[in-house]
Specification:
CATH architecture of the largest domain: Alpha Horseshoe
Structural class: mainly alpha
Helix content: 55-70%
Strand content: under 5%
Shape: flat
Strand order of the largest sheet: 1-2
Largest sheet: 2 strands, antiparallel
CATH class of the largest domain: Mainly Alpha
Distance between the termini: 28 Å
CATH topology of the largest domain: Serine Threonine Protein Phosphatase 5, Tetratricopeptide repeat
CATH superfamily of the largest domain: Tetratricopeptide repeat domain
Order of helices and strands: HHHHHHHHHHHEEH
Amino acid sequence: MYAKCGSLEAAWKVFDVMDDVNDASTWTAMIGGLGMHGRGEEAVALFERMVGEEGVAPDGLAFTNVLHACSHSGLVEAGIRLFNEMKELYEIEPRMEHYGTMVDLFGRAGQLEAAIGAFESMPFEPNQMVWGSLLHACAINGGLGFGKRLEKRLSGLALGMVEGEEGGFFVGVSNLYARCGKWDEVGRVRDTLVERGMRKESAISLVVVNGEMHKFLVGDTRHPLAMEIHRMLYEINRQVMCE
């Protein structure tokens, strides 16, 4: 909770006073908190301390968190080593989320071929999360050729996706073409979206205050406290700029 709220110092204090050092879930939560804040090297070091000094056996979730930390901190070599150790040393079969994180790791590091290799090495059909990771890797690394293959595969998978997801993936392919300056392809993909009646769900933000959930869209002014909220945001931005 403290890590997710942005207070790693408080999270560390709770972690340091825990009674049961063999509780893998607490180690896993702290590793995840460090990774969430971009402190990948510390996350890997804590994982190594957990399995080395303390002898706590990691589970699949612990590996998910430490691999995620590697992905967001560009620790490619550490990520590869940990992914291999997961099966070789701890006999944990990599699951969908582990492969997806490796695809994301390579993609963020600019290693598109490695991302594609991790994707194609999966022993099961990838889910939307993994597809999204690969599509993002192609977009940031200009993988136009593989983007075309993605589009063909997505055309066959669209019917099995949740409503709204299929549109989001095709918009991603369209953005990939746009990044590469292939404007005719952008128009063709957008036409396909219209012809199939697909749409991309708008991104929303959710916040719970006093047990009540509030939903916000970009530019949305329908919330009854919209004016007060925008005034507060303006004041926050003003103070940040002054500092």
